Amino acid sequence: MYTIGDYLLDRLSEIGITEIFGVPGDYNLQFLDKIMANKNLNWVGNANELNAAYMADGYARTRKAAALVTTFGVGELSAMNGIAGSFAENVPVVEIVGSPQSSVQDARKLVHHTLGDGEFSHFEKMHQSLTAAMAHLTKENAPAEIDRVLNALLETRKPVYLNLPIDVAESPTSKPSGKLSGSTELTSEDQNLLQEIESAFSKAKHPVVMTGHELASFGLEKSMQRFIEKTKLPVTTLSLGKGVIDETTESFIGTYSGALSEPSVQTFVDQADFLLLLGVKLSDSATGTFSQGFSEENVIAVNVDEVSLYGKISQNHHFEPLIKSLETLEFAPYSGDYPAKNDDLASFIPSAAPLTQKRYWQAMDAFFEPGDMIIAEQGTSFFGIAPLFLKTNTSFIGQPLWGSIGFTFPATLGSQIANPDSRHILAIGDGSLQLTIQELGVALRQKLKPIIFVLNNDGYTVERQIHGEEQAYNDIPMWRYEQLPNAFGGDSDVFKAYKVQTEKELVVAMKEARLDPDRLYWIEVVLTKMDSPEYLQKLAELLTKQNS
Hints:
Elements: H1 4-14, E1 19-22, H2 29-37, E2 42-45, H3 49-63, E3 66-71, H4 74-88, E4 93-99, H5 102-106, H6 122-126, E5 133-136, H7 142-156, E6 160-165, H8 166-169, H9 188-203, E7 207-211, H10 213-217, H11 221-231, E8 235-237, E9 252-255, H12 263-270, E10 274-278, E11 299-302, E12 307-309, E13 312-314, H13 319-325, H14 357-367, E14 373-376, H15 380-385, E15 395-397, H16 408-418, E16 424-429, H17 430-436, H18 440-445, E17 451-456, H19 461-466, H20 484-487, E18 495-500, H21 503-515, E19 520-526, H22 534-547
Parallel strand pairs: 1-2, 1-3, 3-4, 4-6, 5-6, 7-8, 7-10, 8-9, 10-11, 14-15, 14-16, 16-17, 17-19, 18-19
Antiparallel strand pairs: 11-12, 12-13
């Protein structure tokens, strides 16, 4: 018998999902049976629902859609922080919540995983601000509601929510009769906007394009690359959006961070007579606490939810076709100068000296190769990588807007599952890792092969830089990090662990990791407590002022 549960799984397969993450619970077990029986889908069980949400987020950033399954109440609430991060940063995740039988809900029975008041809608209501669309599925509405919600996922690239009662998942239905659309066409307002952009570039003497993370959410990197190469326009990116443009492109001038930018980049962007912001959100950490020096009177900003035309907001626009249409614009290619780049990398020659943040990131810059997937935790790792010029065909994952520490470890694993052929390299601090380390068991069980650098600097260095340098609340327990893969059940054929304290020890571990793509490499990097990248030191000063 073909059921509503089968219908939902076939629709997930249609949008490119081949793995589903989550945690079993008695309200979703029968639905999980359907996943296990579906030849197009694989189940990836997680240690907890928060990590499942993080892993789904990483998968979706690489595969462009993901799904997780939780149980009602306790499971979905555990996942909410991860769903909120996906919403904030435009990551398309389908959250499927297995809930009690419809008859139980209708009778308002006091069952487990509820608040004991007979009300079953509390948790759905909590998700309203964190999802682009949601539905409580019934036997009557399920196919139409599933299609509506998944189309919203494709149109917005934000999370969606489906409440799936046990009996509804088992109810018969017909197979899908058509394809999901999720596509939109240019509006008349879009056409007018394209003409305005074309005119602005034709008149500008000093134009700049700034790219952001929303472009990656819609898989628009290649379209944007063609537009930049055709027009030769100077292009920059925020750290929130790093990797959207190939940073070896001639006209890529560097990462813009307001007052924290390289001076030549800051001056070039701030003095532009026309800026086109595409998928950009000017958040505090990405702009040096709002220290950008350009004004909206010179800016057209195109976002998923709205367009700002020199400060005037309009909303009847369709982001994806609008961005793709930029390639059709006709104006003379840019023929001016670009600021000098500080991207020349001398070969890293290691010494026997203890590692410092500065030397560690010089070594990492030399270690990265074209085609890598680089993931940086929102701590010293992110702020160490942000100013670097990435190699060609490099992808990048961070979470600088939502900034939930611990996110990147599960996200790395999800992204690796989505693209097993790409070498994934994670840099994460000890404090962040302690929040989500449980998924190391999943990495070893799935025989995933990332290279993971664990920065052991004895606590919360970012917070120490901002406030409370010697306070106990910025301390964490000291773990024996190099022993963790063993503790989580790893064998020597699936992982290799190092603990490095000097430059030479780091390079030895790096070289072996590069030469051995068939094992997970776990490299503990010992650094001092207050050492941090220069970028972070400056940002911490600005955040201290912002928070006081």
